[in-house]
Design brief:
The complex is a heterodimer of chains A (634) and B (274). By secondary structure, chain A is an alpha+beta fold. Chain A is 22% helix and 34% strand. In chain A, a hairpin with a 2-residue loop joins strand 27 (383-391) and strand 28. Chain B starts with a helix and ends with a strand. The chains are: A alpha+beta (634), B alpha+beta (274). The interface between A and B is large, with 58 and 73 residues.
């Protein structure tokens, strides 16, 4: 199994250390034949791998007499080349001189040179023929076809550093970009419908999304850079704590141009890990962090962009219980074949044979198989050799179990078979891989008998559980817990709360009764007080007496009828009292008392009502009314 | 009523044969496992009995034979790590299902003693884990006994309150006061311990350690630091009783004595219950 880190380094180094570390120098000229007074351009393009900087100085173009050049201009360049899926990045500078000729003749211009990133770069000298008069040339604005890999003029729209009309190919051009101009088709697994980040992102996938415990699921992690070539650093390994992992990551980072969401990403696969879930559940894996570096990825003080991948999830379930064979171990999933070889087949009792069983197939290949059990046959721990690795992304291989088997009893012995029950996810059913071991001829060994008779030392459990139970006996069912029944908890409260409630009710009733009694006696007292005041004040304070009379009448009515008569109009009082069962004569008498009260109050002694007589009348009516039976009350 | 009866008959006609078939299949596999056990094919017997258990078949005699098969294999040359722990788990399961099974009780004691002996022989100190106070008190009596105590307390309290409230005799008032005191104590204690026992029953599951040694982990799966430099403080020996408090796909939270931690599911065998 390769270490995943190796692939990480390959990816990072790919961008930074692709073949050419040396300078590449190209010399271009806009025209070899110019007229006197015309100008032409000489262009020197110097590129390197971008790691040594791109500082330019000492630009120099030797010119023959009759030619002059203005101050050269320099423009930085960046180039990404993808050839057969391999990405390389170069950066550099293009220095342009505008040369004006003043006399005819044949000359050699150059060679142009610059000091680039501390290295001296020199182009080729260029033969120029200067003629009298104009030379004409290609129409301005002439366009070449769409060329995404021509960093000088990707769209042929004149964004080339050459002036219009200078895009034709010079015989002196040593441009080698022709071979990089074919954009390769990218694998479907790199397709992204909605890129999460136009600058850069990392994507993790797990497929398939539903598997059984022990079935392979493949984790892939892809990196996408939307700002040109990038290097990756500070990468961690994708997490996969709940899985047994293999590594099928590519040896080299193959980059592709992947257009998505209006951005052309440089993308490639970083990791491919076949994983085998160790338990059921919704498991996740793939979280990975890394830093995108490079010219387009610097972010302020940060030299690179830190990006994290998503967590990829897979739903893992155990194979079904239905049809599960005895001895099946959770996780034994795949498609396997079992073969076995036994030798020798003719031995003496007490000797050992060799059994070599090979389990091979697709899957993580289980670490153990089932061996047959016979009395007198002892299987020792097997020696294990294995070769399990991913091939074309699918883990497969074999494990060989070499057993030493001691045969203690003589006779003809059928060894039976070694087996492995496993679950085949394609068939969605259990299968048992089997390999027959054949039979042995075990001869009598005179020394074996004594050995077999030796008791096992320190076997303190020899007499424990020696007799299995042959039938399923009865056993008591667990009583249903009382605490699970809501009624139990209610019952706990019902008794005490019932008694308390009953006590409260009884108390309340007696209290109310007492209050009623108290209230009744209180009215009587008030009535007597009012009548006494009425009589006492009749001579000295007529108005006080009148008030007392009025209060006494109302109290007498309330005491007799339970009616608060103050709210009733005096004109309706008699009929109301009569309707409540009071005799009409009494009702009229009480009404008359109250009318006299009003008269005396508002008219005074001129009314002819005698306060003393009024008080006596009120006393008489009140006293008599208390003993009278109500009309209709039986 | 007639309709209900008809539906019941139809249901029985439809599903009864399946239930009978399943029961017959379980009995057949139990018999096959016994055959393997009697001829010394312990692994075969274990595989069959474990499969029965996986299918949800719960019976003390099946658990007993599973324990016997594990003990048999532990004594054989094919012994696998954790066999004695699994035997202890099977026997503990028998006692959960049939608490008065003396044979299983004695066998469990012997298996645990053997585990302890091996533990000590390997240089480890014997580990005694005391149950937490709440569990210790709740486990003194069964949940239903605590519930009955609470009910008795409730009745006594009600009686005391009634005597105090409705009878004016001095003797009745005195008897009422005593009943109120006793009833309150019984009610509160019984109800609290019923609730506690119920909570423990519903939220925790008794289990046995079936690994050679189970190192306690933290929630993220990292080993817990040792206390006072001893690995025994964070290692649960094989065959020890624990309670599973929480189950996650990759880790089980367990209570061991007054402490606990996390273990991988393969180190723990949860006991089947009735």
């Amino acid at each position: 199994m390769r270490l995943g880190l190796a692939a990480a380094s390959a990816c990072a180094l790919f961008v930074v250390s692709q073949p050419a570390h040396a300078l590449e120098v190209q010399t271009q000229v806009s025209a070899r034949r110019v007229g006197v007074g015309e100008s032409f351009y000489v262009q020197l393009t110097v590129t390197n791998d971008g790691q040594s900087g791109n500082r330019v100085s000492d630009a120099h173009l030797p010119l023959p007499p009759g030619m002059s050049a203005a101050q050269p201009t320099a423009s930085p360049q960046s180039q990404v080349s993808i050839i057969n899926g391999q990405m390389s990045q170069r950066s550099g500078v293009t220095v342009t001189w505008t040369v004006t000729v003043s006399r005819p003749g044949s000359f050699r211009v150059g060679p142009p040179s610059v000091l680039f990133a501390g290295e001296h770069a020199q182009g080729q000298s260029i033969p120029i023929e200067v003629v009298d008069g104009g030379t004409g040339g290609p129409a301005p604005g002439a366009r070449r076809g769409f060329d995404p890999f021509d960093f000088l003029d990707p769209f042929g729209r004149g964004s080339s550093p050459f002036p219009p009309g200078f895009n034709f190919k010079s015989p002196f051009d040593d441009d080698t970009n022709e071979q990089t101009e074919q954009e390769p088709a990218y694998p479907e697994e790199l397709r992204v419908d909605k890129p999460p980040d136009p600058a850069a992102f990392v994507r993790a996938t797990l497929a398939p999304d539903r598997v059984y415990v022990g079935q392979q699921v493949t984790l892939k992690v892809f990196a996408y850079g939307g700002r040109g070539a990038f290097s990756l650093s500070n990468m961690n390994e994708p997490s996969h704590a709940d899985f047994l992992a293999f590594d099928a990551s590519p040896d080299q980072f193959k980059a592709y141009l992947v257009p998505s969401g209006g951005v052309r990403y440089i993308a490639g696969k970083l990791r491919e890990l076949p994983l085998f879930p160790l338990h059921a559940g919704v498991l996740r894996a793939g979280h990975m962090k890394m830093e995108f570096g490079g010219r387009g990825y610097a972010n302020g003080a940060n030299p690179g962009l830190l990006r994290e991948s998503n967590w990829a999830q897979v739903i893992v379930s155990e194979p079904p219980l239905q049809n599960r064979p005895p001895g099946y171990k959770i996780g034994d999933v795949g498609d396997y074949k079992l073969t076995a070889a036994v030798e020798p087949r003719d031995i003496m009792a007490g000797e050992a044979i060799s059994v070599v069983a090979t389990l091979s197939g697709v899957g993580s290949v289980p670490f153990s198989i089932q061996t047959p059990e016979h009395s007198g046959v002892e299987w020792l721990e097997p020696a294990l050799t294995e070769k399990v690795e991913p091939k074309a992304g699918v883990v497969q291989g074999s494990r060989t179990f070499r057993y030493v088997v001691k045969i203690n009893e003589p006779g003809k012995l059928d060894l039976g078979e070694v087996t492995l029950p496993y679950f085949d996810p394609k068939q969605r059913d259990y299968v048992i891989a089997r390999a027959a071991l054949g039979s042995l001829n075990v001869r009598v060994n005179p020394n074996a008998k004594a050995a077999a008779a030796e008791p096992k030392p320190n076997d303190r459990l020899a007499d424990v559980l020696t007799k299995p139970r042959l039938a399923l006996g009865a056993y008591p069912r667990a009583p249903s817990p009382l605490g699970d029944r809501p009624l139990f908890w209610l019952a706990l409260l019902i008794g005490p709360l019932g008694v308390v409630t009953a006590g409260v009710v009884v108390s309340g009733v007696s209290h109310a009764r007492r209050r009623l009694e108290e209230r009744g006696s209180s009215l009587t007292t008030q009535l007597e007080t009012a009548l006494r005041e009425a009589r006492e004040l009749a001579k000295t304070d007529p108005s006080g007496s009148v008030s007392a009379v009025e209060r006494a009448v109302f109290l007498a009515i309330e005491l007799k009828l339970g009616l608060k008569a103050r709210a009733i109009l005096k004109s309706e009082l008699a009929s109301t009292l009569t309707a409540r069962g009071l005799r009409s004569e009494r009702a009229l008498a009480l009404t008359k008392v109250l009318q006299d009260v009003d008269t005396l109050r508002f008219v005074g002694s001129a009314s002819g009502v005698d306060p003393v007589e009024l008080a006596l009348r009120a006393t008489e009516s009140s006293t008599q009314m208390r003993t009278e039976k109500l009309y209709g009350a039986g | 009523m007639r309709r209900f009866t008809l539906l019941s008959i139809l249901w029985l006609m439809a599903f009864r044969p399946l239930v009978v078939l399943a029961a017959e299949s379980d009995a057949r596999e139990f018999a096959a496992a016994n055959g393997a056990l009697q001829r010394g094919a312990f692994t075969e017997a274990i595989d069959m009995l474990e499969l029965l258990a996986d299918r949800g078949f719960v019976h003390p005699d099946a658990s007993f034979n599973r324990g016997a098969a594990y003990v048999g294999r532990a004594r054989s040359s094919a012994a696998a790590p954790g066999d004695l722990g699994r035997a202890a788990a099977a026997l503990a399961e028998v006692l959960v299902l049939r608490p008065d099974d003396e044979e299983a009780d004695k066998a469990l004691a012997r298996v645990r003693a053997e585990i302890s002996r091996r533990h000590v022989r390997e240089g480890a100190a014997p580990v005694m884990a005391r149950a937490s106070l709440g569990r210790a008190v709740s486990s003194l009596l069964s949940e239903n006994v605590w519930a009955a105590t609470a009910l008795a307390g409730s009745l006594l309290l009600a009686l005391g309150l009634a005597l105090r409230r409705f009878l004016a005799f001095t003797s009745a008032t005195l008897a009422g006061a005593i009943a109120i005191g006793m009833g309150s104590v019984l009610l509160v204690t019984g109800a609290a311990l019923t609730a506690s026992a119920r909570r423990l029953r519903l939220t925790t599951a008794p289990a046995i350690i079936v690994a050679d040694e189970a190192r306690l982990l933290d929630e993220s799966g990292k080993p817990l630091p040792q206390r006072s430099g001893s690995a025994d403080s964070v290692t649960i020996p094989e065959g020890a009783s624990v309670y599973v408090l929480e189950r996650r796909p990759a880790l089980f939270k367990v209570e061991w004595g007054a402490g606990g931690g996390w273990l991988t599911p393969g180190q723990v065998r949860i006991l089947a219950s009735r």
